[in-house]
Every structure is written in structure tokens, then in C-alpha cells.
């Protein structure tokens, strides 16, 4: 790798996965420790002015965007301002910016898979913030890659998977929507995709733009929950054997989560040659890490 790579957010689950995968291929990252209060406009400006890497992977707010149960409007506002400034500094120093985004930019009103050509209409606070962040990145930094991910699953204790598994240890019903669809995407697979994109950008291929990536085989939230419990029970004692079905409209997060969140991944395949991997094959190692770290 000829490019000097900087990773913001090396301490979160996706950052760990990216560093681990890069090390296996002899690819290293500058991964600065964030300030005590997290990355803000001033600290990001100073960082880029001093280091000037060739490419920056911005996972600074990964947990809030992809794993947190909820995020306040004030916190998202601060992050929007910070990313806008980050994009401006990347453009000024000619730094390639790889910025993650999410299926949440769509409202889930259509049953067919969303492509990069579909117009975002986000539902909740996070989706709206991510859509504004996408727009600011496009406007400020032409040399960017925006990667919209599907349902990201990682091994963090307080993430989506961790909260679900803790609830499965309680002897009470665990309802999940049987009419909500998406693409589960293990964090290791997301890291593989980021690294694959970086390798081709390192060859000076001007493949800027927005891309979708999500695990192969769309499924329902209920079927995903069943698969997780089935695999988890081989490693750990759980109080329930399976989740129970519930309608999407009856879920407490129906106003925030798109009912249909399936992403079409043809563009990233045709442009970068990245093929979607089956999410089911990534569950065993993901759950093994979760229980070992827990």
C-alpha cells in the first residue's frame, strides 16, 4: 500500500476489524487516539493539518451511527458539523475520504432493493443526519467514497447484537418483526469491503461516488434473530429457544427503522469487483468473539 492511511475510530468494533484484517495483509493504519471528549471541529482540523495522510477512513462516530440504541439530536448536530469540516480539510489537503453511511437514508416504503440511484427519504434522526452528512461530503470533497452498509452486526457488548443476546438470557418473550427486511452484515465483512476499496484507490483509480454493500441473502429481523439464537445456544446458555413474531408497525422503533432496508450491491460489484458474502457464514466467528470478550 503506497497511500498513508489514517483511521479515525480505531478503537470501535469496525475499526478493530479493519486493523486486524489490514495486519494480516501487511497494511497498517495511523490510528490516533481521540481527545477525551471525542473528535470535534478543532481537534480534527489540527490533526489533518499536522499529519496530512493520503486517505482517511472516518469511523469516528461508528457506534452512534450503527450500534447505539438512540442518539440525541444535539450529538448528531455536533457530528454533522465535524464531518463537514473534516471533508473541507480533506479537500484542501487532497486527502481521499472514505465515509460510511447507512440503509437508514431510505424510508423503507418500497419492497424492492434500494440502489444508489434511488432518492433518499430518511425517517428518523440518524437517517436524516446521515443524509445531510452525505450531501456535505459530496459538496466539500469530490475525492470521496461513501459506503452505505446494511444491518451491521458486531461483537461490542452494547451494540445491536449484544443487546439482543442479553435479552435472550431473560425468560420472557423476545419479539422481532417478521415483516421487516434487510441485509445482515457482519463487521468483519464490512472491514473486508473497506480494505478492498482502499486497495483499488491505492492504484489511483478515480472511483469516487456512493456505493452500497450488505451481506448476501436478504432476510427478516425475525429470521435473523432465530439464526443468532440457534448459533449462540451452541456456545452459551440462553433462556429462550426462539424470538416471537411481531408486525413492523407494532415495533417501538417503527418510526425510526425502515421496514424494507434491502440494499442492491451491483454497483460495488461492477466497479470494484467486490462480491457480497453470505452473512450466515460470519455468525459463528462473530458470536465466538462476543462471548470470549464478554
From TrEMBL:
Record text on cofactor binding: Binds 1 Mg(2+) ion per monomer.
A GO CC annotation given for this chain? cytosol
If you read the UniProt record, what top EC class would you report for this enzyme, in one word?
A: oxidoreductase
Report the cofactors.
Mg(2+)
Q: Which reaction does it catalyse?
A: dTDP-beta-L-rhamnose + NADP(+) = dTDP-4-dehydro-beta-L-rhamnose + NADPH + H(+)
Q: Which UniProt keywords apply?
A: NADP, Oxidoreductase
In terms of InterPro entries, this protein maps to: dTDP_dehydrorham_reduct, NAD(P)-bd_dom_sf, RmlD-like-bd
Instruction: Please state the Enzyme Commission number of this protein.
Output: 1.1.1.133
Ranges for domain RmlD-like substrate binding come to 3-291
Q: Can you name one GO molecular function term for this protein?
A: dTDP-4-dehydrorhamnose reductase activity
Q: Which GO terms describe its biological process?
A: dTDP-rhamnose biosynthetic process; O antigen biosynthetic process
Metabolic or biological pathway: Carbohydrate biosynthesis; dTDP-L-rhamnose biosynthesis
Described by its record, this protein's role is as follows: Catalyzes the reduction of dTDP-6-deoxy-L-lyxo-4-hexulose to yield dTDP-L-rhamnose.
Recorded family membership? Belongs to the dTDP-4-dehydrorhamnose reductase family.
Protein name per Swiss-Prot or TrEMBL: dTDP-4-dehydrorhamnose reductase
Species in which this protein is naturally found? Pseudomonas rhizosphaerae
Amino acid at each position: 500500500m503506497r497511500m498513508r492511511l489514517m483511521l479515525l475510530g480505531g478503537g470501535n468494533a469496525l475499526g478493530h476489524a479493519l486493523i486486524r484484517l489490514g495486519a494480516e495483509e501487511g497494511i497498517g493504519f495511523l490510528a490516533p487516539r481521540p481527545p477525551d471528549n471525542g473528535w470535534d471541529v478543532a481537534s480534527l482540523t489540527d490533526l489533518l493539518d499536522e499529519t496530512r495522510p493520503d486517505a482517511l477512513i472516518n469511523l469516528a462516530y461508528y457506534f452512534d451511527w450503527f450500534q447505539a440504541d438512540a442518539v440525541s439530536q444535539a450529538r448528531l448536530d455536533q457530528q454533522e458539523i465535524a464531518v463537514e469540516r473534516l471533508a473541507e480539510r480533506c479537500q484542501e489537503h487532497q486527502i481521499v475520504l472514505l465515509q460510511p453511511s447507512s440503509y437508514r437514508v431510505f424510508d423503507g416504503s418500497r419492497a424492492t432493493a434500494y440502489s444508489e440511484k434511488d432518492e433518499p427519504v430518511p425517517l428518523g434522526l440518524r437517517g436524516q443526519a446521515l443524509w445531510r452528512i452525505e450531501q456535505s461530503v459530496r459538496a466539500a470533497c469530490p475525492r470521496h467514497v461513501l459506503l452505505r452498509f446494511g444491518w451491521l452486526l458486531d461483537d461490542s457488548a452494547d451494540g445491536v447484537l449484544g443487546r439482543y443476546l442479553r435479552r435472550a438470557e431473560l425468560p420472557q418473550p423476545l419479539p422481532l418483526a417478521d415483516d421487516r427486511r434487510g441485509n445482515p452484515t457482519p463487521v468483519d465483512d464490512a472491514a473486508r469491503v473497506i480494505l478492498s476499496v482502499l486497495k483499488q484507490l491505492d492504484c489511483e483509480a478515480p472511483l469516487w461516488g456512493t456505493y452500497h454493500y450488505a451481506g448476501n441473502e436478504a432476510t427478516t429481523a425475525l429470521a435473523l434473530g432465530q439464526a443468532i439464537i440457534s448459533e449462540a445456544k451452541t456456545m452459551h446458555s440462553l433462556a429462550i429457544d426462539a424470538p416471537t413474531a411481531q408486525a413492523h408497525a407494532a415495533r417501538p422503533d417503527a418510526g425510526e427503522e425502515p421496514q424494507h432496508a434491502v440494499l442492491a450491491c451491483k454497483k460495488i460489484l461492477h466497479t470494484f469487483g467486490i462480491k457480497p458474502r453470505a452473512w450466515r457464514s460470519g455468525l459463528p466467528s462473530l458470536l465466538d468473539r462476543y462471548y470470549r470478550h464478554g
